[in-house]
Specification:
Number of helices: 3
Largest sheet: none
Helix content: 40-55%
Mean pLDDT: 78
Low-confidence stretches: none
Order of helices and strands: HHH
């Protein structure tokens, strides 16, 4: 079975810069989460571990 090639993990700043660049390039467009991950070539590990925890 094929294994997915794992890249280097991104820092919070790198993820934030990539997201800001995407949103700045198309300010009036609505993006799905799936589109954002594919456009920025992100893996869920890059982002999910860096999201702020929500109170509850």
């Amino acid at each position: 079975m094929g294994k997915k090639k794992v890249g280097k993990r991104l820092s919070k700043k790198a993820v934030a810069d990539a997201l800001q660049g995407l949103f700045t390039a198309s300010p009036n467009e609505t993006f799905s989460l799936k589109y954002i991950f594919r456009a920025l070539k992100l893996d869920t590990q890059d982002v999910l571990g860096r999201l702020p925890k929500q109170g509850g």
